Amino acid sequence: MGLQRGHGCGPGSVVALHSFTKVELLEGLLSYAGYEEIKPEGATDAGMFYTYFPRLGETLETPKPDSPVVIWMNGGPGSSSQIGSWTEIGPVECVNGTDGKQALKPREPVTGVGLSFTVPNNLTVNSTITAGKHFVQFFTQLFEGSLAPLKSNPLYIVGESFGGHYAPYFTWLLARQGVRISGMMIVDGWSYPEVQSQYYAAFLRSWGVAAGATVDRVLGQQANVALTIRQGNLEAASGLFDEVTGDNYPGEGRDPFEIWMNNNKKALGAPDFANFSSGNEIIYNAFKQDIPRSYADYVAEVAGQMPVLVINGQLDYIVNTEGVINELELKGLIDGQGGPWRLDGQMAGRVYKGKLTLAVVNLAGHTVPEYQPGPARDAIRHLLSNSSDWDN
Q1: What is residue 18's predicted lDDT score, i.e. its pLDDT?
Q2: What is the per-residue pLDDT across 49-75, written as a single tens digit (0 to 9) for each?
């Protein structure tokens, strides 16, 4: 989650807000990282961390006017967008070398954000609406300050997973304030829970993963999710959703990526007190009332204002494709027939068109770019070029 609150910031900690650190990750490959000030209620100090990767061959100081700026937000809620930056869509990835040590490997460039703090450090957000207020503050400070040279460049907002709440709402907020946005993308997005939650049994049955009593149990669980949402008991609905998906929050384990981030945080421009973790269970639990809320109306409204691309992994169970197709059909946003999507002569997936575009990526699970980077890159290229030709 791009709006994640960090840990360990005590009174007297000093962070240079409205500034950035320039880092040469590999020869000729630059990144910029820093903090912008936000003002959460009850906080005496707060900074939202970001990482910016310029287009290859460019610098922040000398961008080309047509170079797109992509703001990427992971979901959770409580997951850091540095996950997307370093394992999905950034220009480099953290890999294990033959000597057992971790190293950086070049990838194709986009952008990411994450690793933030508040004072006192026990404050947190608990809804997309509140997070949106913080995001607008962050966005305004960022493009009036550190990223001012990019203010007039084409802007795209992207949200993954629970980012299916963030992207449409944040895009809607910015557009209302007159910000020019060239497009929006949702990746494996959780936007209409009452509808999307009703296709888990169908997924299990159609892929031969389960049958009989197991499918019957899931049918009962998903029916309870929808009923509980309609009854307005949203926290209970979140718990039921976790049961039907097995998506109980994994906590804050010290995985290799977290270790690498903490070992290199100083080089990335983060202060010593910042303790990076991929996910924050406190935030996840704080959002229990928000997780089952629908943001599908915001998706529809944004789709009436700009190009919108939704991509979904064919094998994603948590946000399964059948649920996404039915969600978008119900809102009148796509034609349910769909057509082939070919990449270099090979079937990459299926594309559904309408008021927005849905691209289903073959053999991809949740977090499409991690599973199928080539088709994910091609999908993003379609959005950035506003191309409608998917059969190539």
Answers
A1: 46
A2: 788 888 878 888 888 999 999 988 888
Q: How many Å from the N-terminal Cα to the C-terminal Cα in the chain?
A: 34
Flag whether pLDDT at 222 surpasses 90. yes
Nearest to 73 by CA among 158, 164, 146: 158
Domain range annotation of the chain: 19-385
19-385 CATH? 3.40.50.1820
Rounded to two decimals, the pTM is 0.86
Q: Residue 62 is which amino acid?
A: T
3-state secondary structure the chain: CCCCECCCCCCCCCCCECEEEEEEEECCEEEEEEEEECCCCCCCEEEEEEEECCCCCCCCCCCCCCCCEEEEECCCCCECCHHHHHHCCCCEEEEECCCCCEEEEECCCCCEECCEEEECCCCCCCCHHHHHHHHHHHHHHHHHCCCHHHCCCCEEEEEECCHHHHHHHHHHHHHHCCCCCCEEEEECCCCCHHHHCCCHHHHHHHCCCCCCHHHHHHHHHHHHHHHHHHCCCHHHHHHHHHHHHCCCCCCCCCCHHHHHHHHCCCCCCCCCCCCCCCECHHHHHHCCCCCCCCCHHHHHHHHCCCCEEEEEECCCCCCCHHHHHHHHHHCCCECCCCEEEEECCEEEEEEECECCEEEEECCCCCCHHHHCHHHHHHHHHHHHHCCCCCEC
